[in-house]
Amino acid sequence: MEKLSMVVRDRARVFVVDDTETNIDLLVETLGEEYDVGVALDGVAAMDDIAASNPDLVLLDVMMPVMDGYEVCRRLKADARTRDIPIIFITARNEVEDQTQGFALGAVDFISKPFSPPVVQARVRTHVQLRRAREELADQNRILEERVRERTAALQRRTEELNSTQLEIIRRLGRAAEFKDNETGLHVIRMSHYCRILAPRAGLSAEETEVLFLAAPMHDIGKIGIPDGILLKPSALDHEEMLVMRRHPGIGAGIIGRHNSILLETARQVALTHHEKWDGTGYPRGLAGNDIPIVGRITAVADVFDALTSTRPYKAPWSLERTLDWMQGERGRHFDPALIDYFVQNLHEIMKIYERWKEQDEPDPRIL
Questions:
Q1: Spatial distance between the Cα atoms of 101 and 202, rounded to a whole number of angstroms
Q2: Cβ-count burial 165-180 (b if 16+ within 10 Å, e if not)
Q3: Beta carbons of 235 and 312 less than 8 angstroms apart
Q4: Which of 17, 35, 93, 364 could serve as a FRET partner for 28 with CA atoms 20 to 30 Å apart?
């Protein structure tokens, strides 16, 4: 029987498409020490080269003659040989509609011109790691399918390896979302612990509680697909911007996908439903009451509490008293009433978590 093996590459491959040689030279200089870099000066020439070289990532200019970057992206995503290669647009066109069009075509990120080499390096590294993680998971799945036909003991071993890989993917995707947003990793740590406090009070088993604790950091993974101009705006969003922002639960659920894995399915539910409201006025589906999965209802309470008591680009942190008053006022409207009761009853444990994982420069909400 032919053995299956993991594909190991010493260096990742990045392909750069830009009609300006100066930009090509700068990107090669920025990435050349860490990656094998291929280049093309126009979209037409790039198509065959990308299919032949199968890079781990494509950096793609938008405004090019003959075939612009959007058309190149559209054709790459339509080709079975290249559809899974992540594409980052590098462009001076930073309007919301431009970025929305790019993400709709399948791009994973945007980098603005003139670009900063450290930003390019960080974003490329993030998305290359994500692709490698997905390839590793696919290889693990193929190995598992092979071994299950051989012996039961091997099946158990590969299942454990697969679970470990899934956890690593969740961690990497969570880091990607943190990089896209301006929140630190402490937000997802705190709100995950808040979920772990609430879950058993809401009737979840010890195993279900631990799964939610591991899945909760994925709640905002869909923000990867939201333009920076909206995500980091230091003031209130207008109506059109809010409509774009409200796409992130669906984007997040799509990134995670449907799986037999309890962990990944819980993460998908959390991403999709943490902005639903008890009275049915939330999004994206307008679910109400117990139709909202319990993991989404728990995450909503934990996420909102941490958001209100933390600094954001558009607001200063709220005091603990103001936060609790507002959340209790939303009992039965925004939030599951029972969960608000559990939250208040366990406030001492909640504040222990806050104290342990608070930001270095964040004021204590109890004394604001």
A1: 41
A2: bbeebbeebbbbbbbb
A3: no
A4: 93
pLDDT one digit per residue (tens) for the chain, 368 residues = 334 444 445 689 999 999 999 999 999 999 999 999 999 999 998 998 999 999 999 999 999 988 999 999 999 999 999 998 999 999 887 778 888 888 899 899 998 888 889 999 999 999 998 888 888 887 887 777 777 666 666 656 666 666 676 667 766 666 666 666 555 568 888 999 999 999 999 999 999 999 999 899 889 889 888 888 888 888 889 999 999 999 999 999 998 888 788 888 999 999 999 999 999 999 999 999 999 999 999 999 999 999 999 887 778 899 999 999 999 999 999 999 999 999 999 999 999 999 998 876 666 776 66
- What DSSP designation does 360 have? T
Provide the H-helix boundaries in the chain: 21-31, 43-53, 69-78, 96-105, 117-148, 152-180, 185-201, 206-215, 228-231, 239-245, 248-256, 262-273, 294-308, 320-329, 337-345, 347-357
Evaluate whether 350 touches 219 at the Cβ level (below 8 Å): no
CA-to-CA distance for 294 and 213, rounded, in angstroms?
13
Contacts of 44 (CB under 8 A, 6+ apart): 66, 67
User: What's the sign of the alpha-carbon dihedral 348, 220, 269, 316?
Assistant: positive
Do residues 51 and 81 lie in contact, with contact meaning Cβ atoms separated by under 8 Å? yes
C-alpha angle with apex 117: 115 to 119, nearest 5 degrees?
A: 75
Rounded to whole angstroms, how far apart are CA atoms 75 and 23?
A: 23
Q: Provide φ and ψ at 312, rounded to 5°.
A: -130, 165
- Cβ burial, residue 89 (10 Å; 0-12/13-18/19+): buried
Q: What is the DSSP string of 252-310?
A: HHHHH---S-HHHHHHHHHHHHTT--TTS--SSS---GGGS-HHHHHHHHHHHHHHHTS
